[in-house]
Design a protein that fits this description.
- This protein is mainly alpha-helical and 85 residues long.
- 52% of the residues lie in helices and 0% in strands.
- The protein is built from 4 helices and no strands.
- Helix 1 packs across helix 2.
């Protein structure tokens, strides 16, 4: 047997949801937990660490000095297709 402490507002919502379904709170809580743990994890992904995020951003910026500067005027269709006939 497992005992779980819930915040009062969470317990109230759980109780209301169980009553709306016409079942006991403990039975409903068990069903919700079983559904939650049976859901597959998103392909083994885990949150990235700060170091991993920094390394990824550094790799994106690696060749940023080769990006041409933006023109001063607004982009136009003519400017985008200036090298097409």
């Amino acid at each position: 047997m497992i005992q779980v402490q819930l915040r009062p507002e969470t317990e109230a919502r759980l109780t209301a949801a169980a009553q709306a379904r016409g079942i006991e709170v403990a039975e409903y809580a068990g069903t919700v937990i079983e559904q939650a743990i049976s859901m597959p994890l998103p392909s083994g992904r885990r949150p990235k660490t700060g170091e991993e995020i920094t390394a990824w951003l550094d790799s994106l910026a690696q060749f940023s000095d080769k990006i041409p500067p933006m023109p001063g005027e607004t982009f136009s269709r003519e400017w985008i297709y200036q090298d097409h006939d």
